[in-house]
Design a protein that fits this description.
By secondary structure, the protein is α/β, with parallel strands linked by helices. The chain has four domains: about 70 residues, Alpha-Beta Plaits, CATH 3.30.70; about 180 residues, Rossmann fold; about 200 residues, 3-Layer(aba) Sandwich (Rossmann fold); about 35 residues, no CATH class. The chain is built from 19 helices and 27 strands. Helix 16 links the parallel strand 22 and strand 23. Helix 5 runs antiparallel to helix 6, helix 9 packs parallel to helix 10 and helix 16 runs parallel beside helix 17. It is globular, with a radius of gyration of 25 Å. The protein starts with a strand and ends in a 7-residue tail after the last helix. The protein binds adenosine-5'-diphosphate (ADP) (2 copies) and iron/sulfur cluster (SF4) (2 copies). One iron/sulfur cluster (SF4) binds next to helix 3.
Length: about 575
């Protein structure tokens, strides 16, 4: 089966010389395999007439065309197609009563499309594009499968649906207080009592996420969808959120898209992996147990389906923090900073050249304040920093500016170090985004651009605040690699504030731990070795991790389980490989 997709955002017939049509051997032979149809300004490929030579793919200057040859048997499994040369989704995840079903796959592969179909927001067309199908016809096509029953309930409204959307930032546009919003949504807002009087545009991202999750959970429904519930939450909140969702699932159907794999592991019962080609097609693989599913995803190879879909992601052993042979970049004695309502106390520490320091701690505990002191932007109340360093900063919340991605990088060229093209833009896939307007980027694309921008800057210390938000698991691993390489090659250091344990495990050689009471008092300790830092941090939140034998990835222990009790008794909160 041939799938031809034209990315209509990329295709710019006014700026090219219609190379796709000019060089097509079929067109030259008089067969209109690709042509501009009447009433359209962009070309259309006829999948029947095209022979799949791939010449147009290579000739198009904007890389707008994709041609894929897929296994013939997939044809029967086409669930939805966005237009003639549009993205195709094959098969669907299956919601189950009493279970949390996880969906795992890179961005642009059809996760949201799947959720929208399962929630009844998008009626699947089964690849039929010339008319709208009736629900009866759709259900008939699924006859004899569990989907027939599921969609007959969706079709006549017998399944009530609740949906937590992906981007919670948008809730800050709401005019009014949290209480007004909760009222309008018709729910109680349990657990939000402390922030009820605050304006929606004045609460943090983590609080917006909490509000959105609470609203979705309290709605009376039969099936619940959560699209990326962990963004902006700290580790403790993520685990609490996962627990609440699990508890609710005992009598409902729950479907979750989540890229924090430690959380997904804890949250889901079964997993559907989506593979295919970003923006071209996605195939939903059959359900796997959560442990096996995540291991398969990390291995990049689906055994049962015999599909390779990416590079293997490996977890490595962390050596003790032996920095004797490394040069110190900056060291600090005891520092404090006092505001009217908040006080930060930093205990002495040193940061070395070439190292990536993971920074753990809840929001509002003084992490940004500390880095601003390092950068000399803020004066400490007590203590001082001898050597001021230049800091490049990627804030937690990012807003798209005006202009294209190319303009952003071109107009700041003189601020960048010499490795930025090869070691940052290229491995992060920024070149493919160059022609897009900043405001048209997806959340994940915008995050990647922001991370790439700050890593391109000439600086001594790079502070990245939650670089993983909205990135898929694969892109997180790529970002981790790029951060590490830049620090090693440029002999600089990075402080990475993160709540995704797998990301922390991959990116950091050492850890700083911020504890205390958010918004009132913060105490910073470290940097320590990863193991010591994790032990300190996890002891405070009372969670232990074991290692998966096969993939070596960390897995959360059930509180009170034999392993949890054993590890706590010997102080091994974070089991090393
Ligand atoms: P994911 O949630 O995995 O990031 P989506 O389901 O949002 O992926 O989208 C998959 C692909 O479908 C996108 O890459 C995009 O090309 C295409 N797509 C999504 N929505 C539409 C739409 N409304 N019209 C045309 N194409 C769309
Ligand atoms: P984090 O980076 O860990 O989220 P911050 O360092 O941004 O934390 O903030 C820590 C605390 O200090 C917060 O309660 C914040 O409200 C307070 N704070 C930050 N900057 C100021 C300031 N200029 N004046 C008064 N309080 C501030
Ligand atoms: Fe031009 Fe490429 Fe569009 Fe063809 S597909 S019209 S070559 S931009
Ligand atoms: Fe023509 Fe080959 Fe492109 Fe098909 S793949 S439209 S045959 S150039």
């Amino acid at each position: 089966m041939r799938v031809a997709v034209i990315d209509r955002d990329r295709c710019q017939p006014k700026k090219c010389s219609l190379e796709c049509i000019k060089y097509c051997p079929r067109v030259r032979g008089g067969v209109k395999a690709i042509e501009i149809l009447e009433g359209d300004e962009k070309p259309t490929i006829s999948e029947e007439l095209c022979v799949g030579c791939g010449i147009c793919v290579h000739k198009c200057p904007f890389h707008a065309i994709h041609i894929e040859n897929l296994a013939e048997e997939l044809k029967e499994d086409l669930v939805h197609q966005y237009g003639v040369n549009g993205f195709r989704l094959f098969r669907l995840p299956l919601p189950r009563a009493g279970k949390v079903v996880g969906i795992l796959g890179e961005n642009g592969i059809g996760k949201t499309t799947s959720l929208q179909i399962l929630s009844g927001k998008l009626k699947p067309n089964m690849g039929i594009l010339d008319r709208e199908l009736e629900w009866d016809e759709i259900i008939e096509m699924w006859r004899g499968t569990e989907y027939a029953e599921f969609f007959s309930k969706i079709a006549d409204g017998r399944l009530k649906v609740s949906y937590k959307p992906q981007y919670v930032d948008k809730l800050s546009l709401y005019r009014g207080t949290v209480a007004d919003f909760i009222d309008e949504m018709g729910v109680e807002g349990k657990g939000l009592e402390d922030i009820m009087d605050r304006q929606m545009n004045a609460v943090s991202g983590g609080e917006l996420q909490n509000i959105a999750i609470t609203v979705a959970m309290e709605r009376d429904a039969d099936i619940y969808f959560f699209d990326e519930p962990s963004s902006y939450l700290d580790i403790k909140n993520r685990l609490e959120m996962a627990k609440r969702i699990r508890e609710m699932a005992s009598e409902k159907m729950v479907v979750v898209v989540e890229h924090d794999l430690a959380i997904l592991d804890f949250l889901a019962d079964v997993i559907h992996i989506l593979y295919g080609k970003k923006g071209v097609y996605g195939v939903v693989a059959g359900a796997k147990s959560v442990r096996h599913g995540i291991n398969l995803y990390l291995s990049g190879y689906l055994k049962e389906e015999n599909v390779r879909f990416g590079e293997e992601i490996k977890f490595e052993k962390h050596p003790p923090r032996e920095m004797e042979d490394r040069e110190e970049l900056i060291s600090f004695g005891r520092i404090t900073k006092k505001y009217d309502d908040f006080e930060l106390e930093v205990n002495p520490g040193s940061i070395y050249r070439g190292e990536v320091v993971g920074v753990l701690g809840p929001n509002g505990i003084g992490k940004t304040t500390f880095v601003k002191i390092l950068a000399g932007i803020l004066e400490p109340t007590e203590g001082e920093i001898e050597k001021k360093v230049k800091v490049s900063y990627k804030p937690q919340y990012i807003k798209a500016g005006e202009g294209s991605v190319r303009y952003l990088f071109d107009s700041n060229r003189e601020k960048f170090h010499s490795l930025y093209k090869n070691e940052v833009l290229h491995p992060l896939g920024i070149n493919e985004l160059m022609d897009k307007e900043m405001k048209d980027l997806s959340g994940g694309e915008l995050q990647t651009v922001a991370v790439a921008f700050s890593l391109s800057m000439e600086a001594d210390i790079y502070l990245l605040d939650e670089p993983s938000a909205y990135l898929d698991a694969k892109q997180r691993m790529r970002v981790a690699k790029v951060i590490k390489r830049i620090m090693e090659k440029e002999a600089k250091a990075a402080l990475v504030v993160e709540h995704d344990v797998y990301f922390i495990d991959m990116v950091s050689q050492s850890l700083m731990v911020f504890s205390g009471e958010p918004g009132r008092k913060g105490v910073a300790n470290g940097p320590f070795s990863l193991r010591d830092g994790m032990n300190l941090f996890l002891r405070e939140i009372g969670i232990t991790f074991r290692r998966d034998e096969e993939s070596k990835r960390p897995r959360v222990n059930k509180i009170g389980s034999t392993l949890d009790r054993q590890q706590k008794s010997i102080g091994e909160y974070y089991y090393e490989i």
